[in-house]
Amino acid sequence: GTNKTLKDEL
Amino acid sequence: MNIFRLLGDLSHLLAVIILLLKIWKTRSCAGISGRSQILFAAVYTARYLDLVTSYISAYNTVMKIVFLVASYGTLYLMFLKFKATYDHNHDTFRIEFLVLPCVILALLINHDFSALEILWTFSIYLESVAILPQLFMVSKTGEAESITSHYLFALGTYRGLYLFNWIYRYYAEDHYDLIAIIAGIVQTVLYCDFFYLYITKVLKGKKLQLPA
């Protein structure tokens, strides 16, 4: 799995 | 966008609307922690700076603007318009004990050592504890008005639903963010005691009163 920042969230 | 995420956002939106309406309709911010509201304004400001750097969707942009406006609107009502009703004697939680550790933690544990990323990380850490002055105020006065309880319930539910969203995204999209997940767990756990009181008292029509 990736550990990407979920910047599409609020 | 999955159902948990959507319900989470709607719960968050409901919380800020309940708070604004409560203050506006009663012309009073009694029982509300101005310190928690200052922290929330700091959270939204630090996190939504990306409004000017990246476009994600109309939904994303509109919601961010709504949360920013509602947050500063709440501060305006509390500290200017209905200032006389602000219960500052009971709002005494030292916010520097929350802000400073969050600043340090954001500088140490982040995905990327850049200004925007550190501010985003800071906002995630700060949001997880921003409700503490409000919970402290409720415990100090020993009670909360029903409308304040509904606000707290909606606000606590929002991040709880985000946890389900993250579980869903982990399996469906192979996508996760440990910083957000751990902070989200901390945030939700802080509400547990309140959730218990809300379900056992407020939903049965009683006022939220802490045992003496």
From TrEMBL, chain B:
Keyword entries, A-Z: Endoplasmic reticulum, ER-Golgi transport, Membrane, Protein transport, Receptor, Transmembrane, Transmembrane helix, Transport
Predominant location: endoplasmic reticulum
One GO molecular-function entry: ER retention sequence binding
GO biological process, one term: protein retention in ER lumen
Localization of this protein: Endoplasmic reticulum membrane
Its membrane topology: Multi-pass membrane protein
Transmembrane regions: 62-80, 92-109, 115-138, 150-172, 178-199
UniProt-listed InterPro entries: ER_ret_rcpt
Origin superkingdom: Eukaryota
Entry GO terms, CC: endoplasmic reticulum membrane
UniProt similarity note: Belongs to the ERD2 family.
PANTHER family (alphabetical): ER LUMEN PROTEIN RETAINING RECEPTOR
Name listed for the protein in its UniProt record: ER lumen protein-retaining receptor
Organism: Rhodnius prolixus (Triatomid bug)
